[in-house]
Structures are given as C-alpha cells and as structure tokens.
Amino acid sequence: MSDPVSRLLLRRAGGHGPVMLMYHSVAAGSGRPDWPWAVSMQQFRAQMDILAAGGWATPTMGELLVDPSRWQGRVAVITFDDGYADNLAAFDLLRERQMRATCFVVTGSIGEAPRWGSKNRPPLTLLDRAQLRALAESGIEIGSHTVNHLRLPALDDDALANELRDSRAALEDITGAQVRSFAYPYGAWDARCAAAVRDAGYAGACTTRTGWALRDGDPYSLRRLTLYNSDNSGSFMRKLAAGTNDVGWPATLRRLLLGRG
Hints:
By secondary structure, this protein is of the alpha/beta class. It has a single domain (4-257), classed as TIM Barrel (Alpha-Beta Barrel). The chain contains nine helices and nine strands. It has helices spanning 4-11, 41-53, 61-66, 88-96, 129-138, 157-175, 191-199, 233-242, 249-257, and strands at residues 19-23, 25-27, 38-40, 76-82, 102-105, 141-144, 181-183, 204-206, 225-226. The strands form three sheets. It has a five-stranded parallel beta sheet with strand order 6-5-4-1-9. The chain has a two-stranded parallel sheet with strand order 2-3. A two-stranded parallel ribbon has the order 7-8. Strand 4, helix 4 and strand 5 form a beta-alpha-beta unit. The mean pLDDT is 96.
C-alpha cells in the first residue's frame, strides 16, 4: 500500500522528461531479498502495475535514443543490469502488460555464475544463449554490459576497446540483432570511456547517476533511478515524481517546502 502524499506526487509526475529505471535481480516470491540490488517478484509486479495504471510508456533504450522528442509525458525506460536468469519471470510479466525493457548483459558469464564479485549476492546465474535469443525475438532489447564487468576508467585503451567490441560482437552473434545500447559497469565512466563507447558503435550509454534520463543532453551519460530491495510502492512513486533516489521523507518534505515536489 502507498501513502496519500506519494500518490499525490505521482499524479504530478511526467513533466520533466523520461526516467530510466535500473533493476538487477528479481527474486521469486514476496519476501524482501537480502541483497540490496534485488527486488522481489511481488515488489516488481506492484511497481509495474503503478506504471501501467498511470499510463506510462515504456520504450526500450534504443527506441528512446532513435527519437527522444517523440517520448513526451510519462515515459519510463525499464532496464536490467548484468543479465540474471531470474529476470525471465519479470520479462514474462512485462510482455503480459505489453511493456518493453532493455537488458544489459555481461557476456563473459553467459549461462554461468557471475565471475565478478558482489558482497552478499545470492547464488545466481546469467541468462544462457538460447534464453537471450528468445528474449530478443520477443521484443526485449539486449544491450552490452561489457565482457568482464570491470571498472572501465581503470583500463588502458586497448583493454577498454576489447571489452566494448567483444561484448557487442558476442551479443550480435547470439541474437542476430544490432546491439546499440550500453551500460557502464558499476556506473564507472569518464570522458575517455564515453568516447570509446561512441567509437565502438553504440548509440548511447547509461550511468548510475540519479536524475531525469536526458538531463545532460548527452546520449552517452544517460541517468537512471535505482530500485533496491528496500523500495516499496510509496518510494517508487516518489522516485518517478522527483527523478532522484533520495526520496526519504526528510528529503521529500524539503522539496515540498521549497515547491519542488
């Protein structure tokens, strides 16, 4: 259940341009996952019901970048980082609602447990080749999240180019579709990385910086709102309305007092 203030703020949402939502794992059931980067299927369903009830358009990232001016009003690009196999149920739910999404895949761990560390992450595997192919055929956009999920600014130019080129080639081989969307691992990037992503043939890249997606006017520094295990329907509504992850009640009340709610 959500609170009346969050519902009121949500009614005012949609005037600042598209938002991008960042998910990782979607755990089965209704219990709150221990991993901060996971949401339960019950949470995810409630959040998608909020979007559907509010008439939010949900283009893929690629569709947004083709013609950003087309997407006015309530627009939410739904993205998933890493490519976990437990996202499959979430994709089924989206298709039932005729909603789209973009999934950024780490190609070095396709069909396997992730090879990069993450504190308190439960045992998870990534989508396999057949699952990725089926998702692409069903309308889910498959984007790149590199080969090895490394912090790109720490790489030399050759290693950076390899991560970008090889991941894209692998995904295009699997899906038979052009891969034009990218997400920086850990949200770590700089001007050199953005230029390398552009030179590798991607149309845009998204960060983990909070804010309205197109706030910076640069397709290689798109902003996203992160969904955590702690997000309930009220905080989800406030994120959509405020375009920030900082939607605790002290921050929300400050924005309301300043007329920025």
